[in-house]
Fold Peptide methionine sulfoxide reductase MsrB.
Amino acid sequence: MKLTEQEWRQRLSDEEFRVTRQKGTERPFTGELLNNEALGDYVCRCCGEKLFDAEDKFDAGCGWPSFSAQSAEKNVEFHQDNSHGMQRVEIVCKHCDAHLGHVFNDGPQPTGERFCVNSASLSFNKSTE
């Protein structure tokens, strides 16, 4: 999904644009989905593709929604990020290249991964079951 900068600005709030299109980070402990405990799907705020399952969400205490795995749809891509003097792995939406956050190797088993995601890059579709 390719849109111009102006089209993204029209679709997204200022904060959503800053985070998803300019690789920003929301302040810790401020995201609307941080404490969400409902069952459902976490989807890309920009294109709506499914990224994470609620069953994989856990409280990492880091200040951002955290997931132990991406959804079975495998819509998350990985990119080396050497910005800010750090070596990290950035996670982006495979369909629209939206910046989501970063993945770390300090999560719970069995994956050992912690997908640390900005709430501003996600929407939540609550399960009807």
Remarks:
- The mean pLDDT is 95.
